[in-house]
Task: structure prediction
Amino acid sequence: MATQVIAQNTVSADFPKKLLSPTSPKARKIRIVELAAPEDEARWVASELERIHKTGRRWRDFAILYRAHGHRDELVRELSRRKIPFVISRLSILEHPLVKDILAYLRLIATPYDDVAVARVLAAPAWQLAPADLVRFAERARKERTRIYDVLESRQPPLPFDPSHAALTELLEFTTRSANHEAPRRT
Result:
C-alpha cells in the first residue's frame, strides 16, 4: 500500500522515484469499514478482536487507536459487555468527569468566588437546579457585578415548591464548614 501512495508523488531532482520492497512476508491489506453508528463500530471492533483472539493471538497483542476520547465510550461499553480485557493508557485522570467534579468542589471550598467551580458544582444533580436556574444565578451575578457565590449567599426567600433552596442551603453550610475546617454537625 505504501508503494501505491508513494507512486503518486511528483518525481523531481529533489524527490527522486522511490521503490520500496517488503522485508516481511505478505500480510493482509488494510480494510476500510464504514458503519452507520458508533454502537455499530464498537460491535464490529469487538467482534474482530474476538475473531482474531480465537486464532491464538493474546489479548495483549491488540491495540485500538481512536481519534478522540468521545469515540472511546461505546467501545468501552462493548468490550466490558463482552468481557474483553482492556487497559486505557495515555489518558489523563484529570480529564475524567468525576475527577473534574471533585476538583470543582475542592476549588469551591478553597476559593468560593471561582465562578467556574461554582457553576460546575451547581450543575450537579444533588443541588436540584434546572439549567435555567444556573443561568439565572450567573446573569444576576453579572448584572450585580459580583460572583455567583455572592448571589447564592443572598438567600432569596424560597418558593414553596422549590426543592433546590434546601439543597443550596446545605451546599453553603458545607462550603463554610469545610473552608473553616469545622467538624460537621450531627443532626
